[in-house]
Amino acid sequence: MGQEKGLSLFRGAPLISYPIELARQISENISIIANNFGYEGFGCRILADDFKNKGPLGGIATGLRAAREKNVLILPCDMPLLSADVITLLITKHGQFEATILKYKGRLHPLIGIYCRSLLPRVIQQIRDNELKVSLFVQKIEKNLLNVEAELAGVAPEVFANCNSRLDLKNLE
């Protein structure tokens, strides 16, 4: 993208502002996991990765370690059209599972989920084993996989659009 992804603009606002807005509907206790500057103006706690260069799994570990609650809502910064309905579904269906993760059109979305803080030792072990794919971690835990099409009628595919490039941003506009 040529700059820090979360600070890239979509419809005039930084990408990171979209998940923050969703999260604020349920909590004021919001953390941004980032290793770069520029996130200070969003009114959230900023956490540097505990495990540098370990991708999203390292970010999940950092979030779980710093968590003040039993359950942690994980949201990506690059899905600006994610809806409050999806977040509400996660929360209402979480129950006593170690994690609740979305599945949409046959694809897992493990970076949109609720993870129990008690998973931290297993996340750290997977990082130490250099198994960095979140999808591999998710296979090993007790989880509630929510099939979005079955749970929420009429969810538009754009809700799950991931913006990894300027072209993705432009196409989503």
Could you describe the 3D structure shown?
It is a single chain. This protein has helices spanning 17-24, 55-66, 84-93, 120-128, 134-139, 148-151, 166-172, and strands spanning 9-10, 13-14, 31-33, 45-47, 71-74, 99-104, 107-116, 143-147. By secondary structure, it is of the alpha/beta class. It has a single domain (5-172), classed as Spore Coat Polysaccharide Biosynthesis Protein SpsA, Chain A (Alpha-Beta Complex). The strands form 3 sheets. Strands 5-7-6-8 form a 4-stranded mixed β-sheet, sandwiched between helices. A two-stranded antiparallel ribbon has the order 1-2. A hairpin with a 2-residue loop joins strand 6 and strand 7 (107-116). The longest helix is centred in the middle third of the chain and has 12 residues, at 55-66. The protein is globular, with a radius of gyration of 15 Å.
